[in-house]
Write a structure and sequence with these properties.
Elements (H helix, E strand, L loop, with lengths): L16 E2 L5 E2 L1 H9 L3 E4 L2 E4 L4 H9 L2
Antiparallel strand pairs: 1-2, 3-4
């Protein structure tokens, strides 16, 4: 008889984020950057930075 079969196991902690250049970003900082639109996820990689608004506007004018 297994006495521990009904015990709950703790959930595994969420992993940290990895940037394209190999840096590990703590989960809380990565989530805050995503919420504030300071980063995006591409696959499993966290890409930090803000989009270049001038490039976006100029590309729309070329349509």
């Amino acid at each position: 008889m297994r006495l521990y079969s009904n015990t709950r196991r703790a959930a595994a902690p969420a992993p940290d984020f990895l940037t394209p250049d190999g840096h590990l970003i703590p989960r809380a900082i990565g989530e805050a950057a995503l919420r504030d639109s300071k980063a995006i996820l591409i696959g499993d990689l966290l890409v930090l930075g803000t989009p270049d608004l001038a490039a976006t506007v100029s590309s729309r004018n070329s349509w």
